[in-house]
Design a protein that fits this description.
The protein is an alpha/beta fold. It has eight helices and nine strands. It holds the Pfam family Methyltransf_25.
């Protein structure tokens, strides 16, 4: 399992185009994530909030949806191939190749998002992310991420190769959020309106 977790970056690099094709195009359409993204955006009181998108992928549909609603995006992804697509699709925003586990920005953000990316980290790496979220969050910042429904490891596939996912227990996520200054605003386990995702939306106290 540990080796499968270590292969995540290379896996997305090898299959970047296949992943994008499988994700499909959302141009001119409202993505299934829109309801949660609207809740996230509603917590960002500034007219042009700064949003940090961790594991931004190709920038669609998540980053594009937020850009179209007035957000200034800083996107981070470990696959240069994904960042190149972001730069081509959404110029004028900041796109960086990097690993979310080594975040070090001289900026605090009004919103932090780790959608369908955070759950690729092993358990201990997930625990270590919460102080990093806090360190990069402005006063009242929103934080939203997806997890698994319960503690454990689940394997999917991408391009015919094993794709690692991990999750902590819900009670531990709540404790980590609280310990790092966040209050849970909304949480749904296996949301049927959003592809069965387990979603956490929190706000810096």
């Amino acid at each position: 399992m540990a080796k499968d977790a270590e292969r995540i970056i290379g896996l997305y690099r090898r299959h970047a185009r296949a992943w994008v094709d499988a994700r499909g195009s959302w141009l001119g359409q409202e993505p299934m994530e829109a309801g949660w993204l609207n809740q996230f955006r509603a917590l960002l009181s500034l007219p042009r909030p700064a949003v940090l998108d961790l594991g931004c992928g190709c920038g669609e549909p998540i980053a594009r949806y937020l850009v179209e609603r007035g957000c200034d995006l800083t996107g981070v992804d470990s696959a240069p191939e994904m960042i190149a697509m972001c730069e081509a699709r959404l110029p004028g925003h900041s796109w960086r190749v990097g690993d979310m586990r080594t975040l070090s920005f001289d900026q605090r953000f009004d919103g932090i998002l780790a959608w369908d990316s955070f759950f690729h980290l092993p358990h201990d790496d997930q625990r270590r992310m919460f102080p990093l979220f806090s360190a990069h969050a402005a006063a009242g910042a929103a934080l939203m991420f997806t997890s698994g429904p319960k503690h454990g490891v689940a394997m999917g596939t991408l391009g015919g190769e094993p794709l690692y996912h991990a999750s902590l227990d819900g009670a531990e996520y709540r404790a980590l959020l609280d310990e790092n200054g966040f209050a849970v605003v909304a949480q749904v386990t296996e949301d049927p309106t959003c592809g069965g995702r387990t979603i956490w939306l929190a706000q810096m106290r």
